[in-house]
Specification:
Shape: globular
Radius of gyration: 17 Å
Strand content: 5-15%
Mean pLDDT: 87
Structural class: mainly alpha
Strand order of the largest sheet: 1-2
Order of helices and strands: HHHHEEHHH
Distance between the termini: 31 Å
Number of strands: 2
Oligomer: single chain
Length: about 180
């Protein structure tokens, strides 16, 4: 029996930049921490997945306490402008640290401000008293489901498609073509 195999389409840099621009507008107009929490979660997820070339499931391994400690350790202005993304587990026979550390540029040459979105996420987790555990969690600290986050991101990509048809063809069905597991 044959199988239909469909790979997720890659999200392009112009689409990422437009997603983050729209999230920034939403951030500036939001009035409550619940809205900020959702916006920061999406922004940080998009930045980490895209700039770190992570698959969607790997982003959910980001540890909040590790993010917080590495963010605080990099306050020296003489240090290079980067941010450390700690994934909670060892990969491929690593020994020593309980984290797999991935350095990312704080602000990419294309203008993606990874540090801003990650800092916002960590600050909101701190205000919820949830610095220990997954970085991508709800307000009580429970790990978010990839499906829930995927629907939010795909809805926003669809909005980009509607507002900027030159970036994503109108004939493309966004919810079928993209997915957070591989698109970033």
């Amino acid at each position: 029996m044959g199988q239909e195999i469909r790979q997720d389409m890659a999200v392009s840099l112009p689409v990422i930049l437009e997603l983050l621009r729209q999230l920034e507008l939403d951030w500036c107009s939001a009035l409550e921490s619940r809205a900020w929490r959702g916006i920061a979660t999406l922004g940080a997820f998009i930045c980490i997945a895209f700039c770190g070339s992570f698959r969607g499931a790997e982003v959910f391994l980001v540890d909040c306490a590790g993010l917080w400690s590495y963010l605080r350790a990099l306050v020296d202005p003489n240090l290079p402008s980067h941010i450390i993304i700690p994934l909670l587990r060892r990969f491929k026979n690593e020994i020593g640290s309980r984290y797999h550390l991935t350095p990312l540029s704080a602000i990419t040459s294309s203008g993606i401000n990874v540090k801003l979105w990650v800092s916002r996420l960590v600050d909101l987790r701190d205000s919820d008293n949830h610095l220990h555990g997954p970085a991508f969690c709800d307000s009580p600290g429970k790990l978010l489901s990839s499906r829930e986050l995927e629907l939010d991101i795909l809805d926003r990509i669809q909005l980009v498609q509607e507002q900027h048809p030159a970036l994503i063809p109108a004939t493309l069905i966004v919810h079928d073509a993209y997915g957070i597991s591989r698109s970033f």
